[in-house]
Recover the amino acids of this structure.
């Protein structure tokens, strides 16, 4: 919910403009990342490291990007069950940063990334607050106490 503050709650305060900016920004960052990877690949071609290393680099970035996309996409709809596992996949997600950026771009076309998850948590917390607040209204001294006996 970075970049949105609390505008996602009521979709006010430039929410639509922010969502468009996030979509454009994440797509531009993904394109810039692809260009950087292309320059790196050209460096491997100049170094003539061989077809096996070229293939290995391509497969590594493709697999890491796919895993990063999937993990990022799932992170928008539910909290991770095992935070330690997510921490161990951090380096893999950094290598596949293009997949994460593309997931961010696609989600920002429909909602603020993570909005559905946060909205559910917000509404649950709001309902719990109203329930607690409702049970404490009134003067407790004026309440009738049940008789014993």
């Amino acid at each position: 919910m970075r970049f949105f503050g609390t505008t996602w709650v009521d979709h006010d305060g430039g929410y639509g403009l922010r969502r468009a900016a996030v979509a454009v920004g994440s797509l531009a960052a993904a394109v810039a990342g692809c260009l950087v990877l292309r320059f790196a690949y050209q460096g491997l071609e100049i170094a003539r490291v061989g077809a096996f290393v070229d293939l290995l680099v391509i497969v590594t970035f493709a697999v890491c990007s796919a895993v990063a996309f999937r993990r990022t996409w799932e992170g928008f709809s539910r909290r991770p069950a095992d935070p330690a596992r997510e921490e161990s996949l951090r380096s893999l997600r950094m290598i596949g940063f293009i997949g994460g950026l593309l997931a961010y771009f696609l989600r920002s076309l429909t909602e603020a990334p993570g909005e559905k998850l946060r909205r559910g948590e917000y509404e649950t917390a709001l309902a719990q607050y109203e329930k607690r607040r409702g049970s404490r209204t009134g003067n407790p001294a004026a309440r009738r106490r049940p008789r014993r006996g």
The helical segments are 7-10, 15-47, 51-75, 83-88, 90-95, 97-108, 115-135. The CA atoms of residues 136 and 146 lie 18 Å apart. The mean pLDDT is 83.
